[in-house]
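Q: Given only this backbone (125 positions), what sequence would you predict?
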């Protein structure tokens, strides 16, 4: 059975330029702490290259764009729903008529004829 040649411990007083979650390693062989710090720093530089950060930014931009597009679609559907709600004359017992706010009078359709046929009343029972 081989013994581990090094001992890992966290040293909060150590003055090294690595993030706090990197554990400082002191070896039993007396390996230099500065040398270890150099290895840690090299590793950090390797990990935090500019490429992945750029990719992340692009991804965030894409997500933001899709959110904006979704919002636009949502707004359109809201407008359509409002039109549907108010573009028909009030009738008793109709669900949509009941949803129409009393302070908003139902708008008359501009083109009579075609749109008059599109008045759908949803009456329960």
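A: Predicted residues:
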């Amino acid at each position: 059975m081989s013994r581990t040649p090094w001992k890992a411990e966290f040293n909060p007083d150590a003055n090294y330029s690595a993030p706090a979650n990197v554990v400082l390693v002191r070896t039993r062989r007396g390996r230099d702490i500065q040398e270890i710090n150099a290895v840690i720093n090299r590793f950090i530089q390797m990990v935090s290259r500019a490429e992945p950060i750029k990719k992340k930014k692009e991804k965030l931009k894409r997500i933001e764009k899709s959110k904006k597009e979704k919002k636009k679609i949502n707004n359109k559907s809201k407008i359509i729903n409002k039109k549907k709600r108010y573009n028909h004359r009030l009738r008793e017992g109709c669900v949509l008529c009941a949803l129409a706010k009393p302070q908003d009078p139902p708008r008359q359709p501009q083109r009579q004829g075609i749109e008059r046929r599109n008045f759908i009343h949803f009456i329960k029972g």
